Amino acid sequence: LAATRLPALLQARDRGPLEAARTAALLPLPPAPQYVVVFGTFATRQAADEAARLVRRKGYIADVLRAGETFHVVSRTYASADRARFWTAIFEQIGLNTDTTADIVDLES
What we know:
This protein is α+β, with helices and mostly antiparallel strands. It has 5 helices and 4 strands; from the N terminus they run H-H-E-H-E-E-H-E-H. The radius of gyration is 20 Å and the shape is globular.
């Protein structure tokens, strides 16, 4: 155990072993949810790539995610659903159609 982590581990030991290890930076924190704006869902990769290029031409980040038999064109990730909804409104104002906002984990499964 690194000497710099020992004091934090000792201070947190009454919180339980997992919380003590997290506090001492021995265990990673669970991943934070990441939300995206979905610009569209497509049956072919070619159609999804074309839609992603349209978003990129407007100056925004767009990626294509495969989910089963379909392809989603999505924005960069945002830390909260509220932030993703805020950007949905911005995209709509500049003429980019959006389907929804979603947790990226839900899209990938």
